[in-house]
Specification:
By secondary structure, the chain is an alpha/beta fold. It has 25 helices and 22 strands. α6 crosses α7 and α7 crosses α24. The longest helix has 32 residues. The structure holds adenosine-5'-diphosphate and magnesium ion (MG).
C-alpha cells in the first residue's frame, strides 16, 4: 500500500498526480474515490448545469461541423452533444480536438461558458468511449476529482491498472477492520469494497462499499482516540483534593452571586476528578454567558489549595487581559499574596502575554517558575514559549473550539506529571464532533443561564432591499446610549493599511470557530467590493449618524497596551460605541453593552455570529443584535443569517454550522491533513455509524492485549498518527 506511484505508473503521470492531487502511494490512489458515477441512458441533466461549473458529462455526439471563421483566420468546429435530457455545444478552434464522429459516446470535461445565450464548452477535454474498451462499456463510469493535467479518465485508467495488475488486491491490502467486527455489522472486506467503489456495476454495490469504507475511517479514528484515552489513564498525574479553609472557600465567600445549579453540579464533578491521580481530561461546554469562568476559577482554586499551579489560556490577548482583571477583582486581596495589602493565605495572579514589556514579562515568568504565582493567565502561546512552571497542576483552555490533541500533548509534556486539563467552549458541539475531535475527552455541559438575564433578540437588516433599516439601526444605537447603555459595531476587516483586504485580524481568535462561509459563496463574494472596514465605518459613524456619541475603534493592529486601555475604558462606560473586528468575538464581558450591529454579517460564520451576539446578552438588560447584509434575503446566505437571527439555541446553530462547513474545517488540521483519513464519513449524517465504531474501537483497544491483537488496525492507527505528527510539524 505504501508503494510509491512512480513504481506502478508512468513517471509523468505519477509526477502530475503527486503535484496536483497529492497522490503519492498506492494507498493514496486507491483511496481517491470517485465523486460520482455517470450512467449511460440516465446521465447528468445537461439542462441543470450552471455557467462556471466545471464538470464532466457523459454524452453522445449529435453533429459536427467545421467552417472558416469570418473575422479571424482559422477554423471553428462546432460539435453538439446530447444525453437525451438536453444538449450542449462544444467549440474548438483550428481543429484542436480529437476526431469526433456522430453517434460516438464520450466523456467531455470543461467549464460551462455562455455564448449568445447558449451554454457551451470551449476546448473541453474529450475522451471517446470506443466499443472495444470494456472499461467504458460499463454501466457506471466513475468520475473522479480531477485536476488540470490529471483528468478523471487518467485516474480511472490508473486505478484499473492497479486493480488488474495486482490481481491479488486481497494480498496487497491489510484489512484494518477485524473479521468479527465486519461480520457483526455486515461489512464487506476491504478489497471487495475498493473494487465496488471504483468499478461498480450497480448503485447497491456503491452503497455497500461506502458503508464499509466509512467504517474504516470511523474505526481508525476511534481506535486512535481510544488508545489515547487508555494511554492517558495509565500515566498518573497528581491528585489535587479540596482543602477547606483555603482559597476555594474564600472565593465562594467572595462571589457576589450564588452559583446556578448547573455550576454547582459541574463544580462537584470537577472537584471529584481533580482529587484523583488520573489526570482529568474534560470538555466543558456552556452557552455564551452561562458562567464558565467561575467554574474554572473554582477548579483553579482547588488546585492552588492543594499546592499546585493553574494556567488559564485564552485565545486572544484582549481576553487574557480581561480574565486576569476579572480574576483579580473576584479574588481581591486573596490574589495579591506577597504584596503589601495582599492576604498571605491567598496566591498571586499573573498575566503573561507576548506583547508585555520585557521587564514585566521577566518578573511574571520568575513568579511562575518559583511557584509564587498560583494562577497564570496567558494566551495559547504560553505553551510554545517554554515558560517554566514550579508545579503545573491544572490547565484551563478557554473558548477554544479546536484545542486539538497535539496541543494537549504539548501540555502534558509541560510538567513532570501530566496536569489536569479543562477545555471550555461556548460553541455547543454536536455529538459527532464531540466523539471525533474531542473523542478523548469527557464532556460536561452547563445548560442553564444565570437567572435574571435580559436575553437577546436578533434581526437581519437587508440593506439591499430595505436601505432605510440601516438608519433605523443607528437610531436604535442612539436610543440605547441615551438610556445609558453601550454598543458594539463589528466589521470583518480593519481597513486602511490592510493587506489587500484579506479581512483577517491577527489578534482574532485563531480559528476558534471562524467557520468560513461555504465555498461557492466565497467565490461569489470575491468579485464584490471588499468587506467593510473598522476604520472606514468608524469614520463614517463619527461624521454621520453617531456624531454625538463617543466612538472608538478596537482591532489587532492597535498596540496591546492601548488595546487594553480601550477595553478598560469601554468596561468603565467611558466609550459609548466600540467599532471592532472579531477581537470582541469571544468572552469579552461588558454587561452594560446591549446592542451589537454586525456589518457585512454574511462574511462571518454561523458560530462566529452566535459568539459575537453573546457579547450583548450578558446583563439584566435585553440585548439586540442586528445583522447587516447586502445579501438578498432569499439567497442561501440571506437564509443562513435569518436562521441565526431566529434562534439562540446553540445546538441548532452548531448543526447549521456543520452543514455549511466541510468536514475538514471541523476536524481541524490533525484529521484533515493533506492525506486526510476522513473522506466519506460525514459528521452530519453518520452519527449512528460513528457511535457504533466508537463502541467497537473501545472494546478492541481495551480487551486482551489491545491493538497488539489487531496488527492491521494498529498499522492504520500508526499511519494516522504519523500523518498527524507530520501536519503538526508542518504547522509548527
Ligand atoms: P461564559 O460562560 O460565556 O464564559 P462568563 O463566565 O463570562 O460566561 O459569565 C458571564 C457573566 O455572568 C459574568 O459577568 C459573570 O460574572 C456572571 N455570572 C456567572 N455566574 C453567575 C451566577 N451564578 N449568577 C449571576 N451571574 C453570574
Ligand atoms: Mg467565557
Amino acid at each position: 500500500m505504501d508503494t510509491p506511484l512512480t513504481r506502478v505508473l508512468g513517471p509523468k503521470t505519477a509526477k502530475v498526480m503527486a503535484e496536483q492531487l497529492a497522490l503519492h502511494t498506492v494507498r493514496d490512489l486507491l483511496r481517491h474515490y470517485p465523486r460520482r458515477y455517470a450512467r449511460r441512458g440516465e446521465m447528468t441533466r445537461l439542462d441543470g448545469l450552471e455557467v462556471g461549473d466545471r464538470v464532466t458529462v457523459l454524452a453522445q455526439v449529435k453533429s459536427v461541423s467545421t467552417r472558416r471563421m469570418q473575422q479571424r483566420r482559422g477554423t471553428l468546429t462546432e460539435v453538439t452533444v446530447g444525453d437525451g435530457a438536453g444538449s450542449m455545444r462544444l467549440v474548438f478552434f483550428n481543429n484542436r480536438h480529437a476526431h469526433l464522429d456522430v453517434g460516438e459516446w464520450g466523456l467531455f470535461a470543461g467549464t460551462v461558458g455562455l455564448w449568445r445565450g447558449d451554454k457551451q464548452f470551449t476546448h473541453p477535454d474529450c475522451h471517446i468511449i470506443t466499443g472495444d474498451d470494456d472499461d467504458w462499456a460499463r454501466a457506471m463510469v466513475p468520475l473522479y476529482p480531477a485536476s488540470k493535467d490529471v483528468s478523471s479518465w487518467v485516474v480511472q485508467k490508473s486505478v484499473k491498472l492497479l486493480m488488474d495488475d495486482a490481481h491479488s488486491l486481497e494480498q496487497l491490502l491489510d484489512d484494518p477492520i477485524p473479521a468479527p467486527v465486519r461480520e457483526r455489522h455486515g461489512l464487506v472486506d476491504l478489497a471487495t469494497a475498493l473494487r465496488q467503489k471504483h468499478r461498480p456495476e450497480t448503485q447497491e454495490q456503491v452503497d455497500e462499499a461506502d458503508e464499509r469504507l466509512k467504517w474504516d475511517e470511523a474505526l481508525v479514528l476511534q481506535a486512535t482516540l481510544a488508545a489515547r484515552r487508555r494511554a492517558a489513564a495509565l500515566e498518573p498525574g497528581i491528585a489535587r483534593p479540596p482543602r477547606s479553609g483555603g482559597l476555594l472557600d474564600a472565593v465562594d465567600a467572595a462571589l457576589p452571586f450564588s452559583l446556578t445549579d448547573g455550576q454547582r453540579e459541574v463544580g462537584e464533578e470537577l472537584a471529584a476528578e481533580l482529587a484523583r491521580e488520573q489526570p482529568m481530561n474534560r470538555l466543558l461546554q456552556g452557552e455564551v454567558g452561562s458562567g464558565k469562568t467561575v467554574v474554572a476559577l473554582r477548579a483553579m482554586a482547588q488546585v492552588v489549595d492543594a499546592g499546585g499551579q493553574a494556567a488559564l489560556l485564552a485565545p486572544t490577548e484582549v481576553l487574557a487581559a480581561q480574565h486576569a482583571r476579572s480574576l483579580a477583582a473576584i479574588l481581591g486581596p486573596l490574589g495579591r499574596a506577597g504584596e503589601l495589602d495582599g492576604d498571605p493565605t491567598g496566591t498571586r495572579v499573573v498575566l503573561l502575554t507576548g506583547s508585555q514589556k520585557a521587564a514585566v514579562r521577566r518578573e511574571a515568568r520568575a513568579a511562575v517558575a518559583d511557584g509564587s504565582a498560583g494562577i497564570v493567565v496567558g494566551t495559547h502561546a504560553l505553551l510554545q514559549e517554554g515558560v517554566e512552571f514550579a508545579d503545573l497542576g491544572l490547565v484551563v483552555v478557554d473558548e477554544q473550539h479546536r484545542f486539538g490533541v497535539e496541543q494537549r500533548d504539548a501540555l502534558r509534556a509541560k510538567g513532570t506529571k501530566p496536569p489536569h486539563v479543562l477545555v471550555m467552549t461556548a460553541t455547543p458541539i454536536p455529538r459527532t464532533v464531540a466523539m471525533t475531535v474531542y473523542g478523548d475527552l469527557e464532556t460536561s455541559t452547563l445548560r442553564q443561564l444565570p437567572a435574571g438575564r435580559g436575553g437577546v433578540s436578533s434581526s437581519v437588516v437587508p440593506v439591499g432591499e430595505k436601505p432605510a433599516w440601516l438608519d433605523r439601526a443607528w437610531a436604535r444605537v442612539r436610543e440605547e446610549v441615551a438610556a445609558g447603555r453601550q454598543a458594539y459595531v463589528v466589521c470583518p476587516r480593519i481597513g486602511d493599511l490592510d493587506d489587500g483586504g484579506s479581512g483577517k485580524d491577527d489578534d482574532g481568535p485563531d480559528g476558534a470557530d471562524g467557520a468560513p462561509p461555504p465555498e461557492e459563496e466565497k467565490a461569489g463574494a470575491s468579485d464584490k467590493r471588499p468587506p467593510l472596514a473598522v476604520l472606514d465605518v468608524a469614520e463614517g459613524l463619527r461624521a454621520g449618524p453617531l456624531s454625538a456619541l463617543r466612538v472608538e475603534v478596537l482591532h489587532g493592529r492597535i498596540p496591546p497596551e492601548e488595546k487594553e486601555a480601550r477595553m478598560r475604558a469601554f468596561a468603565a462606560a467611558e466609550i459609548d460605541v466600540l467599532v471592532a473586528t472579531t477581537v470582541v468575538e469571544v468572552g469579552v464581558d461588558v454587561p452594560n453593552a446591549t446592542v451589537m450591529v454586525v456589518m457585512d454579517a454574511d462574511r462571518f460564520g454561523v458560530s462566529q455570529l452566535h459568539q459575537l451576539r453573546g457579547r450583548v446578552a450578558r446583563g439584566k438588560h435585553a440585548g439586540l443584535c442586528l445583522l447587516v447584509t447586502e445579501a438578498p434575503s432569499t439567497s442561501p446566505t440571506g437564509q443562513r443569517l435569518a436562521a441565526v437571527a431566529s434562534t439562540t439555541d446553540g445546538f441548532a446553530l452548531a448543526r447549521l454550522d456543520l452543514e455549511t462547513r466541510r468536514e475538514g474545517d471541523v476536524l481541524g488540521a490533525a484529521q484533515s491533513g493533506r492525506r486526510s483519513n476522513v473522506k466519506l464519513l460525514s459528521l452530519l449524517h453518520d452519527e449512528a455509524l460513528i457511535a457504533e465504531a466508537r463502541v467497537e474501537a473501545t472494546a478492541l483497544v481495551e480487551q486482551g492485549r489491545g491493538l497488539a491483537d489487531h496488527p492491521e488496525l494498529a498499522a492504520a492507527v500508526a499511519a494516522l498518527a504519523l500523518d498527524e505528527r507530520a501536519t503538526y510539524l508542518e504547522k509548527a
